[in-house]
Write a structure and sequence with these properties.
Blueprint lengths: L8 E8 L5 H11 L5 H13 L7 H13 L11 E2 L4 E4 L5 H10 L6 E7 L6 H12 L5 E6 L8 H17 L7 E3 L23 H8 L13 E9 L2 E7 L5 E2 L3 E5 L4 E9 L2 E3 L1 E2 L4 E7 L9 E4 L9 E8 L5 E2 L3 E6 L2 E14 L6 E4 L3 E2 L4 E8 L16 E6 L2 E12 L1
Helix pairs in contact: 1-3
Length: 418
C-alpha cells in the first residue's frame, strides 16, 4: 500500500476509443508501480486462475477493482494512486465518455491532465477525435498521447510515425501543441514504466517519465476575479449560512460582495470551513459564508467583488458538441447546467456546423445538430443565468445541456451579451 507523502498530487483521466487498451494501460500502471496491495493482488490472481485465463490480463485486474467499487468495498480505482518519483497520480474513474463529461462539468472530478490512448493496430477512429475534442472543451489543457498495442504491429517505427503524424495534426488544431507522443505496449509493459528494449528506434522517455516531466499540478486561479457559485443556504445557530464553492479569486472576512443576478450587496462576516472558522478562502474551497446585508440567495447565484462583478447574460454564443441521439434544433428549449445553476434557455440560432478535427465550417445555418456534431449556437436564457467567456474564466464558461436521460451536449461560451 502506498504511504501518504508530501509528493504533489496530479489527477489523470485516460481517454480514447473503448477498444484501444485504456483498461490494460491503467491496470499496467497500477501493477508496475506496485499500487495494488499484495493481499488484494493475490485474490485477483486466484480469480484469474479460476476464470480459465492462461495469462495475466491487466484489463482483468481493472475489472476486479471495478467490481469491488460497485460492491461498495474499499478499493476504488479513483482512490488508488500510483506513485512516481515526482508525483502521486490518481486516475479519475470514468467508464464512458458521458460519465467523464458529467463528472468534469459538475465539478465532481477535476483532471489536471489527460492521457489519450490510440491503438497502433486500429489507428485513429471517430471516438478518438471526439474524446480529444471533449477534453479540450472541458478545460483539460495538458495532454500526453500513448500509441498503444505496439506489440501487435511488431513494434514498427513506420506505423508509429504514421499514426503520430496524424494524431499530432489533430492535437495541434485543437491547441495541444508540442504534445508528447510515446509508443507503448500496455499488455507487454513496454515503455509504460520500464524502458523498452524492443523499440531501439525510439530514444525518448517512457510514459511515466513523460508524465513526470511534462505535467504540472493544478495551480489555483487566485489572480482571477472572485467567482463563488451558491449551492444552498441554511439557518445554523440563529445565523444564515450560505454554502458555496470558490471557483476563482480569493475571499476574505470583511470583503464586500455583490450577488448576481439580483445585484444586492453585503459584507462577509464569517467564513466557515470543515476545519473551523477561517479568515479567507481560495479556489477549490467549499465554505459556509455568513454575510451581513445580503438578501435571500438561490442555488446558481454567483457572489463576486464589486470591482469585477459576475453578470447575468442576456444571450450567449457557444461551441457545443452533441452526444445524444435526440439532437437539437432552432427554437428548442433546453436546460443548461453551469456550475450550480440549472436554467432553461432557448436556442435562437444555429450559426454553423464545424468539423471537430479540422475545425472548418461544414454547413452554415443548419436546421439541426445531431449526435457527434459540433456547432456554434446562440442561446437566450429564459431564467436568470450568469456565465463567463471561456477563454477568460474557463471555470465559469463551460456548461452541459441536460435532458431526461442525462447529459445531451457539452459546451463552452465564446461570446456573451450582458
Amino acid at each position: 500500500m502506498l504511504r501518504v507523502s508530501n509528493l504533489p498530487k496530479v489527477n489523470l483521466v485516460v481517454i480514447g476509443h473503448k477498444d484501444h487498451g485504456k483498461s490494460t494501460l491503467i491496470g499496467r500502471l497500477l501493477y508496475d508501480s506496485k499500487a495494488i496491495p499484495e493481499p488484494k493482488l493475490k485474490v485477483i490472481m486466484e480469480e484469474l486462475k479460476q476464470s480459465g485465463k492462461k495469462e495475466f490480463e491487466f484489463a482483468f485486474l481493472l475489472d476486479s477493482l471495478e467490481e469491488e467499487r460497485e460492491g461498495g468495498l474499499t478499493i476504488d480505482i479513483m482512490h488508488t494512486p500510483f506513485k512516481s518519483k515526482k508525483y502521486f497520480y490518481t486516475i479519475i474513474d470514468c467508464p464512458g465518455h458521458k460519465e467523464f463529461i458529467k463528472k468534469m462539468l459538475t465539478g465532481a472530478s477535476k483532471a489536471d491532465a489527460a492521457v489519450l490512448v490510440v491503438s497502433a493496430k486500429e489507428g485513429i477512429e471517430d471516438q478518438t477525435r471526439q474524446h480529444l475534442f471533449l477534453a479540450k472543451t472541458l478545460g483539460i489543457n495538458q495532454l500526453v498521447i500513448a500509441v498503444n498495442k505496439m506489440d501487435m504491429v511488431n513494434y514498427s517505427n513506420k506505423v508509429f510515425q504514421r499514426i503520430s503524424k496524424k494524431i499530432r495534426g489533430i492535437a495541434d488544431s485543437l491547441g495541444y501543441e508540442e504534445t508528447p507522443i510515446i509508443p507503448v505496449s500496455a499488455y507487454e509493459g513496454e515503455n509504460v514504466i520500464r524502458k523498452s528494449d524492443k523499440m531501439n528506434w525510439y530514444d525518448g522517455a517512457t510514459l511515466i517519465e513523460t508524465l513526470d516531466s511534462s505535467i504540472k499540478p493544478f495551480k489555483p486561479p487566485v489572480e482571477k476575479p472572485l467567482r463563488c457559485p451558491v449551492q444552498d443556504q441554511y439557518q445554523i445557530g440563529g445565523e444564515r449560512v450560505i454554502l458555496c464553492k470558490i471557483e476563482t479569486g480569493t475571499l476574505k472576512v470583511g470583503d464586500e460582495v455583490i450577488r448576481a443576478p439580483e445585484g444586492d450587496k453585503g459584507y462577509v462576516k464569517k467564513i466557515l470551513s470543515p476545519s473551523g472558522e477561517s479568515t479567507n478562502a481560495t479556489p477549490g474551497d467549499s465554505v459556509g459564508l455568513i454575510i451581513d446585508g445580503l438578501g435571500d440567495v438561490s442555488r446558481g447565484d454567483v457572489l463576486s467583488h464589486l470591482t469585477d462583478p459576475a453578470r447575468e447574460v442576456k444571450s450567449f454564443t457557444a461551441e457545443i458538441i452533441l452526444f445524444s441521439e435526440i439532437g437539437l434544433q432552432t427554437g428548442d428549449i433546453v436546460t443548461v447546467r453551469a456550475g450550480t445553476a440549472e436554467r432553461r434557455c432557448k436556442i435562437t440560432e444555429i450559426i454553423e456546423k464545424i468539423d471537430p478535427v479540422s475545425l472548418l465550417v461544414t454547413e452554415t445555418n443548419p436546421t439541426k445538430l445531431v449526435e457527434g456534431d459540433v456547432g456554434r449556437v446562440i442561446f437566450k436564457p429564459i431564467e436568470p443565468l450568469c456565465l463567463e467567456i471561456y477563454s477568460e474564466i474557463p471555470e465559469m464558461g463551460r456548461f452541459v445541456i441536460v435532458g431526461k436521460k442525462g447529459a445531451e451536449a457539452a459546451g463552452i461560451v465564446l461570446e456573451r451579451e450582458v
